[in-house]
């Protein structure tokens, strides 16, 4: 016979808990460092896209 929904859900949650215990969670300094890297990368990409947008808009104004 097949398992009931409750049994399958219970088994799934137990397996999820077991897998979560195997995870190597980052430390607070690692999280802080990763956040800074992401913010700097986003800032640089925004500047790059802004410069490209500005340049293309000037080019379009010159053409038209």
Oligomer: single chain
Structural class: mainly alpha
The coarse overall form would be elongated
Strand content: under 5%
Mean pLDDT, to the nearest integer, reads 95
Low-confidence stretches: none
Q: Name the helix and strand elements from N-terminus to C-terminus, one letter apiece.
A: HH
Number of domains: 1
- The counted number of beta strands is 0
Gyration radius, in Å: 25 Å
What is the helix tally? 2
Query: Roughly how many Å apart are the termini?
Result: 74 Å
- What share of residues is helical? over 70%
Largest sheet composition? none
Strand and helix map with partners:
Elements: H1 5-22, H2 28-63
Question: Could you describe the 3D structure shown?
Answer:
By secondary structure, this protein is an all-alpha fold. It has helices at residues 5-22, 28-63. The chain is elongated.
Notable features of this structure?
mainly alpha; 64 residues
Q: In short, what is this structure?
A:
The protein is built from 2 helices and no strands. It has helices at 5-22, 28-63.
């Amino acid at each position: 016979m097949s398992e009931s929904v409750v049994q399958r859900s219970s088994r799934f949650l137990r397996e999820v808990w077991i897998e979560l215990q195997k995870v190597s969670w980052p430390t607070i300094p690692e999280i802080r460092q990763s956040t800074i890297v992401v913010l700097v990368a986003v800032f640089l990409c925004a500047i790059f896209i802004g410069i490209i947008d500005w340049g293309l808009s000037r080019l379009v104004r010159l053409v038209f």
